[in-house]
Amino acid sequence: SQELEQSPQSLIVQEGKNLTINCTSSKTLYGLYWYKQKYGEGLIFLMMLQKGGEEKSHEKITAKLDEKKQQSSLHITASQPSHAGIYLCGAPSVRDNYGQNFVFGPGTRLSVLP
Amino acid sequence: GAVVSQHPSRVICKSGTSVKIECRSLDFQATTMFWYRQFPKKSLMLMATSNEGSKATYEQGVEKDKFLINHASLTLSTLTVTSAHPEDSSFYICSARGYMGFRDGYTFGSGTRLTVV
Fold this sequence. Notes:
The structure holds two protein chains of two kinds. Chain A is mainly beta. Chain A has strands at 4-7, 10-14, 19-25, 32-37, 43-49, 55-58, 61-65, 71-76, 85-92, 102-104, 108-113. In chain B, strands 2, 4, 5, 6, 9, 10 and 11 form a seven-stranded mixed β-sheet that branches. Chain B is globular and about 40 Å long. The termini of chain B are far apart. Chains A and B meet through strand 5, strand 9 and strand 10 of A and strand 4, strand 5 and strand 9 of B.
């Protein structure tokens, strides 16, 4: 089954600093989703990437999917306390053509110090 | 865009009772719904996958008699935690996918925090 790994596990940065979170798949990705969550609350959809080399941006967050479609990075520019939370990458599994499952990485816990 | 409504958002129940959590796709037909559980400081773990009109497929280690999943229509799936115990206290979240396969995207409910006392 497909597994997603994320690094780092946790991250503490000073407000205003840039940061990058990585998500690596054991198999080719057929779509990669980034979410933000405050623990015990719902998921906030950030971005979805499907094509190799694709890059999307929303406000100060940029996500990229590598050409081989096995790794994605999420980059936050000039971080703010509002960026704090758990960042999860997720992807359809490759169990069948219709992605029977959707799995998540273990998450990266981000803290932004004011 | 696609919206998934999950209710209740929070529930407290007594040990031994059953609790039902609903997941509804509001503006699309969800052929497949997924149920996840999140332990404290852990990621979301897939519990089961349900396809409309058929039995749910449970992940290894998930008790199907404990967590009853029903997906009777294209817009509604329910998770019933039967004979709940304090160790079932957790955050549960559902997700729905439409007809066109994973390229449609996955839409998540807002989650349910279950506390069993």
